[in-house]
Design a protein that fits this description.
disordered C terminus, Arc Repressor Mutant, subunit A, three-stranded antiparallel beta sheet, homodimer, 6 helices, about 60% helix, DNA-binding, mainly alpha
DNA sequence: CTGATGTGCAAGTACTTGCTTGCACATCAG
DNA sequence: CTGATGTGCAAGCAAGTACTTGCACATCAG
């Protein structure tokens, strides 16, 4: 359930689709999920395997089917990592801004939005 | 700056390393960053390109160098997406638990931790 | 000017990844 | 039992990815 595993798992669009499906439709079987996606059941199974390895989903056998459900903890933990990184940067920004108001630094990038800067939309 | 781009960008360990370096060490040049990683400058440049495309970093030319800095907004936005998915699931859980206390569902996976369940650690 | 340093562009390579197809095994209804 | 449905395993393939190497161009110090 490392941060890397979770991010890598969510990097794939089909896998994100699966996660969103599970989030709002509840626990489902692989075959059922494959019915709502333009891929084979086997593709879904493999994706669910990656998600499970990352700790994002869990599975439970009931009779001849295997039902998959979300495991929100892995998601929130990874979200926290991202927010921590962002916060760390913001804190650095604040410190520098306070210490040296005179020097012009690239640090102000966010408010400058230069030619080289990738624009947000 | 889509969610998919950000997640795909952060899926790579080297790129995460770069992001963490920038977060705590401030804005740096590609060559300087390459000095702290076991890869070539060109590899770093390409990684920064991906991160920039995703809106995670921004760059600013100053003289003959190009300095890169973090763009926290993309990170927090993606973090929010993950938390939303997790929250959606939790809400479903709560509703079901309230409506049908009698029926046993796989939905309770989180508290059951069965043989098939990937264990958290 | 010269040399050093930093960048940009491009092609090539080893490896990974998402997906499919094919078949065997297990479980349920009749 | 038979047939239908759901699952598991494995090989194969096309496309993407991370990384390198090589070289040309731009900028600074002396």
């Amino acid at each position: 359930m490392t941060t890397g595993e979770v991010l890598a798992a969510l990097a794939d669009p089909t896998r994100r689709r699966l996660v969103e499906l599970l989030a709002r439709a509840g626990d489902r079987t692989a075959t059922s999920l494959a019915g709502e996606l333009p891929v084979t059941r086997q593709a879904v199974v493999q994706h669910l395997g990656v998600l499970k390895e990352a700790g994002v989903v869990g599975s439970l056998r009931s009779g001849r089917e295997v039902r998959f459900g979300l495991r929100p903890d892995a998601l929130t933990a990874t979200a926290r990592w991202m927010e921590d990184v962002a916060a760390q940067w913001d804190q650095r920004l604040a410190v520098i801004k306070q210490l040296a108001e005179a020097e012009t630094q690239i640090v102000d990038a966010e408010t400058q939005d230069d030619e080289m800067m990738t624009r947000q939309r």
